[in-house]
Amino acid sequence: MASPVSFPFLPAAALTAVLLAGLYKFIIYPALLSPLAKIPAARWHARFSPLYSYYIRWANIENRTVHDLHRRYGPVVRLGPAELSINCYEGGLKTIYTGGFPKTEWYHERFINYETDNLFTTADPKEHHHLKRMVTNVFSKSSILSSSTLRITTSAVIFDRLFPILRESSRSGKAVNIHPLNYAYAMDSFTGFQLGGKLGTNFIQNTEEREWYTHHFFDGRPYLFWDFEVPNFTRWLQRLGIRLVPAWCAESQFALEDWFVPKCDRAAELVASQDEKPLQTSGDWPTIFAALKQKFEEFDGKSKTPRPTDESELYPHRLEIASNLFDHTVAAIETSGNALTYLHYELARRPDVQSALRGELLTLDPDRKRELPDSKALDALPLLDAIVHETLRRYTPVGGPQPRVTPRVCTIAGYEGIPPGVRVQASSWTLHRNPEVFPDPGAWRPERWIGATPDELTEMRKWFWAFGSGSRMCIGSHFAMLSIKLVVAAVYAQFQTSVVDAEGMEQTDGFSGGPIGNKLWLQFVEV
Ligand code: HEM
C-alpha cells in the first residue's frame, strides 16, 4: 500500500498568500497604486484606514477640521481609503451635485421615518425623480409667493402669537430668549402652510408641547454617530448585549412619529370632507398634504399595475405621505430657526443696519401693525435679501458634508480614474469661507451682496451653497427664504433689538449647527 503524500508546507504557504493578498488589497493598493493615491491625504493612515474620518465625526470636529485641511492641501483631500472631500466648483460641485451622483446610505439610516423612505432619504435616482415631481410645483417660487394659506397662517403666527411676547418685552424692559421662539416660529409657520392653520402647531404659545418636542428631537444628538455613521457595527455590538445608544433614542423617534401621523390623518379627513375654496380663504387648507396626496392618487390612476390595498391603511400611501411631511418639518425647524437666531444676533449688534433695513421696509408701506407686506415686493428688497443671504453664508445652517457616491469611473478636481463607489462630499461650511470669493469670510457683511460687481456676484452665487445644488437641492428653499423674510420684515419694521446675553453663539459642528449656548437673549423696544 502506498503511503499518503504529505505537504507540511501547504498551510504555511496558504497563510502567506492570504497575508500578501490582504497586504496588497488593504495597504499597498489603496496607499500607493489606487488612482486616489496621488490625492493629498488628511493623515498618512487615511490612505488605508477609515478611522481618521470616523474620529473627526465622532468628536464632532469634522466641519472645522475639513476646512483646515482644504486650506492646507487645496481643493481635494482624501479623508479615507475611499473617501474624498472637495472644495471647488469646476470638477467638484458641478461634477458631483449638478452631475446627480447618488446619495450614500447615510441619508436612509438617519432620516427615514415610519420605516418608509422619503424625498430626502431615497438614493435611487429614478425613485427620487418620481417623488420630486410630486412636490416640485407646490414648493416652486411662484406657488410660495402667491399662496394665500401661507400668508394667512404666517400672519397669525407673527401678529397673534409672536408679537404679544415682543411687545411685553418692550413694555416691561425684560429680555426675551429669542432662540427657542425662532424654532417655534419656523415650525408654526411651516406646519401652518403644510397642514393649514387649524392643524399646524402652535409652539410659540404652547411651551409645554414645544419643550416636549425639542427634548425628543435634540436630546439624542450625542449618540448620532453610532447609529448613523457605523450602523452595522453598532447593531452587531447590540446583538452581543453591548448598547452604545440608549433605548430611549429610538423611543424618542417613535414618539415624534406617533405625534405627527394623527395630524396627517386629520388633514385627510379635512380634505375629504370639505371644499378647497373656503378652507383656502380661512387659511385652513393643508396645502402640502393635499398636493402630495393628490399626486399619489394621480400616479396610481396612471399606473398599469394596480396598487395592492392594505386594510390597515386609513388612506392610500398614508405612511409615505407621513414620512415625507414629517421629514419636511424636521428640515424646516432647525435650519430656519438657527438662521433666524444668527440674523437677530447680527442685527442686534448693528443698529446702523437695523435702521437702514427699517428704512427699506417702510418703502413698502403696509399697515405695519397688522398686515404682512406683499410677498413679491418683500422678496425684491435688496438689503433684506442681502441680510438673509449673508446670514445663510456666514452661519450656514447645514454646514456638514453632503455625501454622495461616485457612480462610475470619473475625474474629480482634475484627478482622473476615480473608481465607482468612492464617497465624495462637499460642505457649505468650507465653500462659504473661500476668501477669494468672500473676502474676510468670518465677518458678517450684508453689504458684500449689494456692492458686488456682476462678475463677483455670479461667483458668489456659484459658491453660495446653503441649500445645496443639483437635483438634490433643498426643495423648501423658497419657503424658507420667504418665511424668514416675512418675520424679519414684520419685527424690524416695528422693533429695535439689542443684545442682552449672547454667550455661546459659536456654531456647533455636525450636519446642522446652531449656537452652542442654545440661547440668545434680546431686548425688544417698539419704535
Ligand atoms: C434655511 C432653511 C433651510 C436650509 C438652510 C436647508 C438646507 C438644505 C440642504 C443643504 C439640503 C441638501 C442636503 C443634502 O443633500 O445633504 C436640503 C435638502 C432638503 N430640504 Fe432643506 N433647508 C432649509 C429649509 C427647508 C424646508 C423649510 C423644507 C421643507 C420642505 C426643506 C426640505 C428639504 C428636503 C425635502 C430636502 C431633500 C431634497 C432632495 O433630496 O431632493 N428644507 N436642504
Report a brief summary of the structure.
The chain has 527 residues and is of the alpha+beta class. 56% of the residues lie in helices and 7% in strands. The N and C termini lie far apart (111 Å).
What separation lies between the terminal Cα atoms? 111 Å
CATH superfamily of the domain at 107-397 and 461-526: Cytochrome P450
DSSP strand count: 9
CATH class of the domain at 107-397 and 461-526: Mainly Alpha
Q: What would the average pLDDT be, to the nearest integer?
A: 94
Radius of gyration using CA atoms only: 26 Å
Beta-strand portion reads 5-15%
Cofactor: heme
Binding site for heme: 474
Organism: Cercophora scortea
GO molecular function, one term: iron ion binding
Structural commentary:
The chain is an alpha+beta fold. It has a domain of about 350 residues: Cytochrome p450, CATH 1.10.630. About 55% of the residues lie in helices and about 5% in strands. The chain contains 23 helices and nine strands. The strands form three sheets. The protein has a four-stranded mixed beta sheet, with helices on both faces. β1 and β2 form a beta hairpin. The termini are far apart. The structure holds protoporphyrin IX containing FE. The site of protoporphyrin IX containing FE (HEM) has 23 residues, from α16 and α23. The site of protoporphyrin IX containing FE has 23 residues, from α16 and α23.
